[in-house]
Amino acid sequence: MKYNYILDTSSLFYYLPKLQQEQRLSPWCENDCRMIIPEKVKEEIKDMESKIFLKIATPKLSVSSPKKMYIKEVKKKSGESGGLHSLSETDISLIALALQFSREEQGETVVVSEDFAIQNYCSLYGINFKSLRNRKINEKRIIIKQCKACKERYPVKFSSCPSCGSEVFKLLTIKHLKELKKNGSIFGQHEQ
Fold first, then answer.
1. What is the tens place of the pLDDT at every residue in 96-136?
2. Of 167 and 13, more confident
3. pTM of the model
4. Which among 33, 98, 118, 189 counts the fewest CB atoms within 10 Å?
5. Amino acid 181: pLDDT
6. What is the dihedral of CA 72, 176, 152, 145, to 10 degrees?
7. Rounded to the nearest 10 degrees, what angle do helices 48-57 and 9-20 cross at?
8. Residue 179 has pLDDT above 50, yes or no
9. Are residues 17 and 111 in the same domain?
């Protein structure tokens, strides 16, 4: 099976010396795998040594930018689930590129990242991810609002409480909505 590994910045820094030394990348990346970084990850590389490593690694490493439609989709979903504030433009680009590859390319797409926010969004999209240090999320999470006046819970997309109109709220981090629906709705009549 063909694998498309999308690397974030920390994963790229881990692999650059290995790519330069022609080492086998890992037990999970054999002959039929591609290593890809988003253009935004490449832009984060500032020091000269890393730029030289990246230039040497270029034949083994592809640089790509996601289509705008996937960036919009990731921004919309992360805004609806309350996590847009936890994602940088580079993170959004990485998730969008993984989403694009998972839908348009043959083979399996895997994101390589230690970042829990990236892992969470990959999980919400059904995109596989790996951690180099075995640091993985235990569960999917979303952020919702809870009205301080009437205690109603509602999606972050609302600027005020749909029940009483109050604009005073607190943010709650909860397990992913689909998992919670097994025990009943968390939003009452105000579904996402």
1. 999 999 999 888 899 988 888 888 888 888 899 888 767 77
2. 167
3. 0.71
4. 189
5. 43
6. -50
7. 70
8. no
9. yes
Give the pLDDT confidence of 3-17 residue by residue, as tens digits: 888 989 888 877 766
DSSP string, the chain: --EEEEE-HHHHHHHHHHHHTT---BTTB-TTEEEEEEHHHHHT--SHHHHHHHHHHGGGEEEE---HHHHHHHHHHHHHTT-GGG--HHHHHHHHHHHHHHHHSSSEEEEE---HHHHHHHHHHT-EEE-TTS---SS-EEEEEEETTT--EEETT-SS-TTT----EEEEEEE-HHHHGGG--SSTT---
* Number of structural domains in the chain: 2
- In Å, what is the CA distance from 53 to each residue of 12, 17, 24, 73, 118? 10, 7, 16, 33, 25
Residues 167 and 79 in one domain: no
Looking at this protein, which amino acid is placed at residue 108? E
pLDDT averaged over every residue in the chain? 77
User: Are residues 150 and 68 part of one domain?
Assistant: no
Is residue 62 located within the same domain as residue 147? no
Domain that holds residue 81: 3-130
* Domain identity same for 121 and 150: no
Residues 89 and 173 occupy one common structural domain: no
Say whether both 88 and 151 belong to one domain: no
pLDDT of residue 97: 96
